[in-house]
Specification:
single chain, alpha+beta, 41% strand, 3 domains, 32 strands, six-stranded antiparallel barrel
Amino acid sequence: MTKWLVSATLALASVCFGADMARPKAGKVEILPLKEVKPGMQATAWTVFSGTEPEAMPVEVVGVWKNYLGPRQDVILCKLGGRGKETGVAAGMSGSPVYFDGKLMGAISLRMGVFSPDAVCGITPIESMLEIQDFDSSRPADARTPDKVVARLSDAPDVPSDMRANLPFIQQIETPMMFSGFSAGVLKQFEPVFSQMGVTAVQGGSTASHLTAKPAPGWEKSLNPGEAVSGILVSGDMSATGMGTVTYNDGKRVLAFGHPFYNLGPIDMPMAKSDIMMVFSSSYQPTKFGSATEVVGALKQDRYTGIMGELGAEAPTVPVHVRVRSLGAGGAVLGQKDLNFNVFVHQKWTPLLMNMTLANSLQQMNEFADEITYRISGDVQLAGSERLHVSTVQAGSDAMSPLPLTLGAWWGDKFTRLFQNNVTTPNLKQVECVVDLLPDRRIMSVDTAWTPSAEVTAGTEIPVKVFLRPYRGERIEQNVTVKIPADLPKGEHRILLSDAVTLNRLQSAAVSSNRYLDLPETVSLLNQERGNNRLYVSVVQRRPTYYSEDKTLPALPLSVLNVLQSQRSAGRALTGIAESAEEELSIPFDQMVTGSFSLPIVVR
């Protein structure tokens, strides 16, 4: 009798589960309203465990948590069976559609606790996901962007670690971010940024290294419910893709994840099919491993209850070419590596991705070492005739941060400033970056300077000796001739012998308060920045310099200053510094120049 009951129970369960066994396809589907969801329902979820074909797994409804995610934001609590119970609720399962009696209930999007023998998950009701609209242009205040990570951590309430370990909590399933072509060292440095935004950084390979934003042939029949889908942040010789599962596809519009990717609101990001290699089972952090294969459209919305993409759409990306050359004695090219990739366009994300990709380009060179100097030249072509050119030289130091990360941050800062202007969004057409690796540590500091007489006459020239101390060897003597401006008033002044940082800092501090720089003005300011492989010689007088957008106004007469200030608004204030430094000349070196020295003079 007992055997018969067990067999009958298993058969009944098989019938209930088998009712939903037909693999879901794109097209209109009947919706199961949340009000009809009851505890004990035996449903079916679809997700990919290996390859591209989704598999069915049984789901048992435990109940509905009302208002768990906010007002009228309910969660369906369930337990996974079958392979889902074996693997646990894995990162990458987000969006797996759940059906009852052929009706779509919602998407697996949350998981409960860790180290639990039960694969307990939360389901976002499909009704909430269908509220995502194409035309919604609002931008969520709690968007997860790199600039907010530190602020969010500092504002978070302090919960004792022993309490956090014992609380039964339900949280968003992590989105596995697959990084291909990135070194472990770079990922280790940037991983905290991603993890604090609910993304699991995973180092892996790629099945399609040269993805373009143009949809591949056959996009019309792609991304059926249950299949894996990826949003692409970087593609090419390096790639970074965030992976989840398709919940709904009406033939044109695709819904996935059941929770936000980064909650960015309206976006334009390449959307691709994905191939799953395996699901790594773990009671702590089970994760799907896979990679993007072909672009089939573009993600258009990243919202609280899911992401929405459009099949066949093409998202803009920034094409980037990085050339890294290893130079020997006399400048001979010993080796060269060319990298090509495309970067997702977004005000907050593009700078971080530029930072990360350049750091990675440098750290993977065989010549990477302490005793090395990097010489970088970058060109950014914007729509129209705008072009940005920046350059720098960085030599090895004893700083905690490796030089590739320092240079990546310098490079990313240029894009931060481009995207931070509040007037025009930059349209980047092409980015080129050339990095030369010089074979030794080429750095020298300004030591001291000397002139025969501190008393000078306006309009004349005086000789100056400058002494610079290199990293190794005897100090270098440089003779220069400085012209004293004819209009320099009588009194005490000084000759400033300095690096680029000293002069750039004066201008940067003055213009930072102007919140309404337009894009051409921002480009102009960046182009004005001085290179740090030069010694700059300036005559400094005790009259203020004022800055108007990208214009420098030294020794401004009081009458002119009053007129300019009366025409300014609070957001475009005329800012200044106490002195005026008139650059007379600069001397190029094949080394990084640091420090400064002031030589006092008196005009009689």
